[in-house]
Design a protein that fits this description.
16 strands; about 325 residues; two-stranded antiparallel ribbon; alpha+beta; 14-stranded mixed sheet; 10 helices; about 35% strand
Length: about 325
């Protein structure tokens, strides 16, 4: 019996991957990079000078900016300078990711999640609906040097505790998982927050999540069952403020004209006296999901396969930073 031999398909081999890369037009590389993430682009800029040039181009970074970034800039509380609006799109991206931008008369703040470009929104205390919030006997507003907003809300004393916030869904990034937080401080003589209170997030009129949370921090003296559920307690952020998660939801995007996200934190049943709480904001923070199309560790098929090697060794990255002017915190 004769043995059939399989025909082997000849594979073109290149002795110099770098030469293959240099054959690609810069515009083609820019198109490829724009399909990844900002973090991937920063890593890829270390591959070669051609990649760095493509990675710094406006064609790439404009894809990472929100589609409505010009509208966002027009709503800035402190107007952008003409130089800031005409600068490179990469610099504009980092301006919006490094420094939260106050918008809508300073009542909201927006920031891009640095590694993904997703929009994160903060609602200042004056933008929240606080029951009895307009009665100085119960709540009052004052400036606070470590707050991003001009004023925070401080609780004098209430029995009926009800804080609500809402935001148009269209302001959020589509296809994004969001976490909602309440950002606060507890004064030394505060009381009334040892018991859990209700937190709820509603999207488009439907409840996304409802749970019990604690506005106080979890301590080592708490019962083991409470310590094991520390996610329901406020945690120290390291900047003088605490935050507690009040819910999460996935924003699919699409036509949500008129749709809103509603967030509430309430305690209206036990009606115990409460005092000593300071509210800075409610925030919606985009949670990063690692993309599978990471250009720094996979092959790209463009007729033939060109392998873009991953720079995984930290010492190599640090050696190349000085050559390519890349911030290692971007990686």
């Amino acid at each position: 019996m004769e043995t059939a031999e399989k025909d082997e398909v000849p594979v073109e081999k290149s002795e110099d991957t770098g030469n293959n890369l240099e054959r690609l037009p810069e515009g083609c590389i820019s198109d490829i990079l724009s399909l990844t993430t900002p973090a991937d682009v920063c890593r890829s800029s270390l591959v070669s000078t051609l990649f760095k040039s493509a990675a710094d181009s406006d064609a790439v970074w404009e894809k990472f900016l929100p589609a409505d970034y010009q509208d966002i800039i027009s709503r800035a509380f402190y107007p952008f300078s003409s130089a800031a609006t005409t600068t490179s799109k990469k610099k504009l991206y980092y301006r919006l990711s490094d420094d939260p931008l106050l918008i809508d008369d300073g009542l909201k703040s927006i920031q891009l999640e640095k590694s993904s470009g997703k929009k994160c929104i903060m609602l200042g205390a004056k933008e929240l609906a606080i029951v009895w919030g307009d009665t100085p006997q119960y709540w009052f507003y004052r400036g606070c040097p470590d707050s991003r907003f001009a004023e925070v809300a401080e609780l004098r004393c209430v029995w009926w505790f009800d804080i609500r916030g809402k935001l148009e869904i269209q302001m959020l990034s589509p296809n994004t998982f969001y976490l909602a937080y309440l950002v606060l401080k507890i004064r030394d003589r505060a009381y009334g927050f040892d018991e859990p209170i209700k937190a709820k997030v509603e999207v488009g009129g439907h409840t996304s999540q409802e749970k019990l949370i604690y506005l106080s921090a979890c301590s080592d003296n708490d019962p083991p069952d409470q310590v094991s559920e520390a996610e329901y307690f406020a945690r120290d952020r390291g900047d003088g403020w605490m935050e507690v998660g009040i819910g999460h939801f996935y924003n699919e995007g699409g036509d949500y004209e008129g749709g809103e996200v509603h967030m509430s934190v309430t305690e209206t049943e036990r009606l115990g006296a409460k005092r000593g709480l300071i509210i800075q904001e409610k925030k919606l923070w985009a949670k990063l999901h690692r993309s599978s199309n990471n250009i720094s560790n996979r092959s790209i098929n463009l007729g033939r396969t060109i392998k873009v090697q991953s720079i995984s060794d930290q010492s190599n990255v640090e050696d190349k930073v000085s050559q390519h002017d890349v911030d290692p915190t971007e990686l």
